[in-house]
Design a protein that fits this description.
This is Protein EARLY FLOWERING 4 domain-containing protein. With 118 residues, the chain is mainly α. 66% of the residues lie in helices and 3% in strands. The protein has a domain of 78 residues. Helix 1 runs antiparallel to helix 2. The longest helix is centred in the middle third of the chain and has 44 residues.
Amino acid sequence: MFQIFKGDTYSGLGNGTQVDNKVLQTFQKNFVQVQNILDQNRLLINEINQNHESKIPDNLSRNVGLIRELNNNIRRVVDLYADLSSSFTKSMEASSEGDSGGTLKSDGKPGQKRIRPG
């Protein structure tokens, strides 16, 4: 297991934005889930390769299920990364709204925050 950030807040984003411990714990949990799935995928790929090289009919048939499991795992990783991205964006938006309450255009007049479709 690895530690992404230490302490209660992380302010190393260059603009003084702080990310609270709950957000970091969510990131940590999701990254650990992703790593576990990727580790499982490595084992699946090794087994698929061994079955393929053996050319034994039963092993080749087993590969169908293993490849399905691998594809499902890849979908799970994509979903976890999408969740991470969304959570990070929301936490940054909430943090920046707390800091400034809005944005200023280059002419110094108030402007609208751009919201990205998600």
